[in-house]
Design brief:
Keywords: Nucleus, Ribosome biogenesis, rRNA processing. Involved in rRNA-processing and ribosome biogenesis. This is rRNA-processing protein UTP23 homolog. It is a single chain. The chain is of the alpha/beta class. It has a domain of about 150 residues: 5'-nuclease (Rossmann fold, 3-Layer(aba) Sandwich). About 50% of the residues lie in helices and about 10% in strands. Strands 3-2-1-4-5-6 form a 6-stranded mixed sheet. Helix 7 links the parallel strand 4 and strand 5. The longest helix has about 35 residues. The termini are far apart.
Length: about 250
């Protein structure tokens, strides 16, 4: 039975990870009714919750839930001690506290953008949260923590995304980040980032050198003509010298 429950929880968690962008550490929003049930059934929430969800968790509550346990008196004193150990998240009812059920519903708003798991035994809270897509519900039954199956609102939302009627939360986040990078949807003066100042660099030492004066180029054809004349004149002189040498012995013989 335990293995079957663990497999079902793993399947449900992967559903919320893939379709609604849930990531570790999972944020578990807990109220006093869940702590009272855990105390009654001798369940250690801090130890058993990470094991059941197979990942790191952050246990948290609201000031309204703590205030409600204080007003209920000594009967829920043990639940209040357990709830005080968890992180207290800010809610909009700091000055005027409301009931825990109303506070939890307001924390999730319409889209559960903060990706909260909600752990409660309150039937009115679970009924209201099942109307919001992408809200995993945890409760205690038969001395064990149970992760409820995805609600019909979550299934309808996923089906609408697959048909192209809606955009998934992960796609919405990627669109937001792209808009912020490109500065789309912001005023010219509110664009993200500042203009980079160019660093003052030293001048190039080669550019500081004085330019050499270019001489008037001589055409290459003239050089070749002069060299050819010099070579020819030397060749003629050699021929003349050779001719004088041959004529002198001929005259002596005569």
């Amino acid at each position: 039975m335990k293995i079957k429950r663990q497999k079902q929880a793993k399947k449900t968690i992967s559903f919320y990870k893939y379709n609604f962008g849930f990531r570790e550490p999972f944020q578990i929003l807990i109220d006093g009714t869940f702590c009272q049930a855990a105390l009654k059934n001798k369940i250690q929430i801090k130890e058993q919750m990470p094991k059941y969800l197979m990942g790191e968790v952050q246990l948290c509550t609201t000031s309204c839930a703590l205030k409600e346990l204080e007003t209920l008196g000594k009967q829920l004193y043990g639940a209040k001690i357990i709830l005080q150990r968890f992180q207290v998240r800010k809610c909009p009812h700091f000055k005027e506290p409301v009931s825990a059920s109303e506070c939890l519903l307001s924390m999730l708003e319409e889209t559960n953008s903060h990706h909260y798991f909600v752990a409660t035994q309150d039937h009115t809270v679970t009924t209201g949260l099942k109307k919001i897509p992408g809200v995993p519900l945890l409760y205690i039954i038969l001395n064990t923590i149970v992760l409820d199956k995805p609600s019909q609102a979550s299934l309808n939302h996923v089906q609408a995304v697959q048909l192209g009627e809606l955009v998934s939360p992960a796609q919405q986040q990627s669109i937001r980040t792209l808009k912020e990078e490109q500065g789309i949807g912001q005023k010219d003066g509110e664009r993200r980032g500042k203009k980079r100042k160019r660093k003052q660099s030293n001048p190039n030492p080669l550019s500081c050198l004085k330019k050499k004066k270019k001489g008037v180029p001589t055409p290459p054809l003239k050089k070749t003509e002069q060299e050819g004349k010099r070579k020819r004149s030397r060749h003629k002189k050699r021929k003349v010298e050779a001719g004088d040498g041959t004529a002198a012995p001929a005259a002596a013989n005569t």
